[in-house]
Amino acid sequence: MDNMRERFATTATELLDTDSRLALVLADISTAQFAPAAARHPERVINVGIREQLLISVAGGLALAGLRPIVHTFSSFLIERPFEQIKLDLTHQDVGAVLVSYGGSYDMTGEGRTHQAPGDVALISTLDDWAIHVPGHPDEAEALLRIAATAGGRAYLRLSSQANREPRAVGQGRLDLARVGSTATVLAVGPMLAPVLDAVAGLDLTVLYATTIRPFDARTLHSAVAATRTADVILVEPYLTGTSSFQLSEALAGLPHRLLNLGISRTELRRYGTPAEHAAAHGLDPASLRQQITSFLTPEPSRHS
Amino acid sequence: MTETKHAPDNAGPDPTAGGYGYADLGALMSLMTGDEKHGPAATSTLDALWVLYDRVLNVDPCDPRADGRDRVLLSEGHGPAAYYAVLAAKGFIDAALLPGFGGFGSPLGYHPDRMLLPGVEISSGSLGHGLPLATGVALGLRARGLAGPRVFTLIGDAELDEGSNHEAIAFAGAARLESLHAIVIDNASSTYGWYGGIAARFIQERWSALTVDGHDHAALERALTVAHPGRPHVVVATVEPKD
What is the complex's ipTM, to 2 decimals? Predict the structure, then answer.
């Protein structure tokens, strides 16, 4: 099985062949994977070198000239480094683009903090009118890329080496009911589905799955939460803890509820090692998830008794 | 600066444009600022903008989004009164809008917004965005096979402090972006200056470059229309130093 980055290259290459309005902008990352596309479409596959401000601004200019740019590099250099360009040269100009990152929060643990971007989705969430897609499988990454490339508007597609075992159908931006339970609801985003399903084995919980976290499918969340015995909700995201909690709070505003946010901590680990070790350090491995979820769902003994 | 050096190009209303000429720009700017003393030379960008819109650009105020138009990306979004005055003089915006300058209900802000005004190519204000965006526009037009339209961006010498410009300067030269034109309004306001000159920064990155008097209309026109095959082109328009 290929990974999301490889699937992105094969799919985007095919899309560039068939849609002359698409352009690809790179900054020296993944240029080898796109060498065939660059040879066939030298004026629509543009490598600006190690210049990430220019990477985004060029995309803005391409869009102003009538093309639909797909823009790609590692998450830290795509979103965090040129954030003002994303804010002004894409959002404020009100032009469309598809930003495709690779590296997630800590795919490249050995590289250290410089190559880790747990804050990317939170940053994009500050801006108007962005779709945010977090696929959990290469098949989902491909489907979401095809949707984003064809649609107008601004989309952020967050690719990662972390993936679920099986793909799920992607479509319409709806939350996907992965498992039906009766006591409470867990919402797992992208690659968090596999560890969440392992964590809740044997527990009577509904599990919803999101690959598109923005725009947020408030209706499905509300009906799922209303259908369980408690309005307890656990949000599990593969990036900064609580990033999408504002959307859940809006969706459940009319319903007294409790919300537990699980994700990457703001505390800097200063560790290398493997992604699995980082997941465990942030409490996102199945055993840690299960412990946090059951603790949240177990009523504390009354302090007055 | 004296006014005599900057004689009006055409004294009367131009029936083919918005009905205004160069001599009217001061009065149009006064509608925005309430200041009666505006001579055209008081604004560093005015002459370059006027020469562009009056003599150089292929643009049509009746069809401001035409595919084949030349593009002007005002990067130096500061002091936009001169820009709005030229757009009004050339019929892109209604002069009746000018007195509302900066108001909540006005489309004319202290920095322009492309979504609010026809003929405005980019929303600007934060420095260092115009040249990189113009680089993308030039690449996009080339990718679409539109060889005719030229892309101009107006930037300031202090704005060149922003590193984003230098990413664009080096790349555009390497990419041989012939349709790309930068106009640097040099009023010597960069805190540390440009040792060796502004033009040299571009030339070493394979740009064509000319430095002219930023108030001399004939020199500006020549510099903006000179042939520069296979290279992007910069015109450094020198004006009086900022106070």
Answer: 0.95
DSSP designation for B116: T
Which residues does chain A have within 8 Å of residue B179's beta carbon, measured at their own beta carbons?
Answer: none
* CATH code assigned to A4-159: 3.40.50.970
CA distance from start to end of chain B: 13
What is the Cα–Cα distance from A270 to A258, expressed in whole angstroms?
A: 32
A28 in contact with B, Cβ within 8 Å: no
Q: Which pLDDT value is given to residue B2? A: 35
A84: chain B residues, CB-CB within 8 Å: 126
The pTM (predicted TM-score) of the whole model is 0.94
> For the domain that residue B127 is a member of, what is the CATH number?
3.40.50.970
The answer to whether B167 contacts A59, with C-beta atoms less than 8 Å apart, is no
Which residues span the domain enclosing B58? 44-78+118-238
Residue A50 sits at the chain B interface (C-beta within 8 Å): no
pLDDT of A87 reads 98
Tell how strand A212-214 and strand A130-133 pair up. antiparallel
Show residues of chain B in contact with A85, CB under 8 Å.
Answer: 129, 132, 164
Residue located via tokens 């690959």: A211
Write the secondary structure of A71-137 as one string of H (helix), E (strand) and C (coil): EEEEHHHHHHCCHHHHHHHHHHCCCCEEEEEECCCCCCHHHCHHHCCCCHHHHHCCCCCEEEECCCC
Provide CATH code, domain A176-297: 3.40.50.920
| A residues 69..108 contacting B (CB < 8 A) | 84-85, 88-89, 92-94
- Structural domains of chain B, count: 1
Burial of B158 (0-12, 13-18, 19+ CB in 10 A): buried
B176 touches chain A (CB under 8 A): no
